[in-house]
Amino acid sequence: MFEQLLPTTIASHIYEQLRRGIIEGEYRPGQPLREEELHELHGSSRGPIRESLRMLLQTGLVEHRPRRGFRVRAYTARDIRQIYRLRATLESQLVAALHGRDLAPLIAPLEAGCAAMDAHYARSDLVSYFSENREFHQSIIDFADDRILREVLEYVNEVSLPVRYRLLGDALPSRRSLTYHERIVAHIKAGDIDAAQRLTEAHILENLEHAVAAFDRDTEESATLT
């Protein structure tokens, strides 16, 4: 499941439910998020619903249009390419920052994450596989300890989640992402940070056109919701 802190308010609870639904495709790109429907679904007053939608707006997962209200963020091919290229550039910079560090505290969680992904892959558990995939990248981001890059990546990664989940749903019969992770860990263990940096960038960019194609297939269906 997607890791989150326990909700402390009704609004945060609704936010978590909507966020998960957007990422996992229950709510499609471009789909309106109407307060009346959310009120009936969650049994909450309008205040917490509006607050949860504003929280999603801040993360970039929803958009707001005057007089048309909130909608799930829609993606163009250009959007997806920009997201993936930016992720590739920023994450490769973070890997480069591992030069000269004691990497033992990083290697252990990365290896554990690969083992967990392998177990989820064997069970075809898409949600858990995806969550562990995210944790692998997040472990490197956190270990690099670059606050500015981490804050920028936090937004970029959040916006990318529905795209990445949609792509992984197509790719799960293959263990391509896990194989990349295992190779990245091997380079880090060997102290070859330059190779790990290059492979990280290649890993992200290799999925770019696959992601564009996956969302292109959904364009006609999503357009009926706008």
Protein architecture, described:
- There is one protein chain.
- With 226 residues, the chain is mainly alpha-helical.
- The protein has two domains: 65 residues, Winged helix-like DNA-binding domain superfamily/Winged helix DNA-binding domain (Arc Repressor Mutant, subunit A, Orthogonal Bundle), CATH 1.10.10; 142 residues, Four Helix Bundle (Hemerythrin (Met), subunit A).
- The protein contains ten helices and two strands.
- Strands 1-2 form a two-stranded antiparallel ribbon.
- A hairpin with a 3-residue loop joins β1 and β2.
- α1 packs across α3, α4 packs antiparallel against α9 and α6 packs antiparallel against α7.
- The protein is elongated, with a radius of gyration of 18 Å.
- The N terminus is likely disordered.
List the helices and strands and how they pair.
Layout: H1 10-23, H2 35-42, H3 46-59, E1 62-65, E2 69-72, H4 77-96, H5 104-122, H6 126-144, H7 147-171, H8 176-189, H9 193-206, H10 208-223
Antiparallel strand pairs: 1-2
Helix pairs in contact: 1-3, 4-7, 4-9, 4-10, 5-6, 5-8, 6-7, 7-10, 8-9
Short summary:
The protein has 226 residues and is mainly alpha-helical.
What is the global morphology? elongated
Q: What is the overall number of helices?
A: 10
Work out the number of β strands.
Answer: 2
**H/E series:** HHHEEHHHHHHH
CATH fold assignment of the largest domain: Four Helix Bundle (Hemerythrin (Met), subunit A)
Can you tell me the CATH class of the largest domain?
A: Mainly Alpha
Q: What share of the residues does DSSP label as strand, in percent?
A: under 5%
In oligomeric terms, what are we looking at? single chain
Question: Helical amount among residues, as a percent range?
Answer: over 70%
- Given as residue ranges, the uncertain stretches (5+ residues, pLDDT < 50) are 1-7
